[in-house]
Write a structure and sequence with these properties.
The strands form 3 sheets. The chain has a 6-stranded mixed sheet. A two-stranded parallel sheet has the order 4-6. It has a two-stranded antiparallel ribbon with strand order 7-8. The chain has 13 helices and 10 strands. The chain is an alpha/beta fold. α3 links the parallel β1 and β2.
Amino acid sequence: MKVMGELSSGRALSGNHRYCIGASSRGRKRGSSKFHSKSIAMNDQIKPQRRMNGRSDVERGEKPQDKFASGYDFLLVNEDITHGTFPEVMGCVNRLKRNENVVLILVTYGGSANAAYRTARFLQTVYEDVVAFLPAECKSAGTLLVSAANAVFVSPFGEMGPLDVQLLKRDELAGRRSGLTTRSALEDLKSHSFDLFEHFMTEIISRSGTAVSFRAAADVAAGISSRMMAPIYEQINPEALGQDHRDLRIAVHYGERLNRKFKNLKKGALQRLVYDYPSHDFVIDLEETRELFERVDIATPALMKIVNARVMDVLIPKSGSDRLVTMLGYDGQPVPERERKTSNASQRNNSDASDSPAPKAGDGAGAPTAS
């Protein structure tokens, strides 16, 4: 199954990535000089690899336009972020790491902030450059992983989510709630209390004419509003409120630490991700992602090639036994582990052959004979 056929075939993905498909214009007749000049200008825009006397970037020894065409590992993480994610990622990288840079392909509905933090710190330690690629949904703890990246690339189907912490519902065996629920309730109560006070005060003044002063009306309205709202405020548990506040601060502190290396988050973006969105599943698309991060772009052709090759694995979030953590090649296929092992064994054999001393006199295997 193929998606985004035009993107994978090389058509323009954005203003920053223009590529040309189709026949070359070398065989056309020049015609008028005006037409010829327009053709040259168009070729300069849509065929950046056909410049400098017709030689390509590769022929001139220059790097290709797509930075992900070489020098990057592609680590696909498609699962709920749990405490098992960190050892899975660490094991996969230790076995199959081939480059000093990595593209972290994230597809997740979220999960544990602690697990996301440990995984992100590990990737920042073992790789010089960490790039986050969002081909589809990347929510909650996945957004925390994105904050550790040097740059963010988003496919036409990609989106992020807010960082509000999801907490277990108290006195229930299952179910979660947003850490912002109590905060939102307090803000709503505050607004409602003031509306009640304002309503009673203006009604008292308007109905009494000049018989009741403003101060007296305000005192009466304050007393009525307080008695009406008191039973509601009494249900608020200060201990639970404080715990929710501390839990929300987890995402803030983790995000601040992960952002120190590459500093891709804009000023105030972390607070906005944690506190300002109305729901946990709010969609943060490409344009809004640009408001939060310094370096954001649409996916390049090399990244979309992986999407086309692994549609079911990168566009549909997985969980449970279907979870997926794997290292991909430039063609989108999993990197075989035997390739890594064979390469290492070959290097060791060559090293042994060149560095080890000549065998002592003995039997045919080189083992010393008994004297």
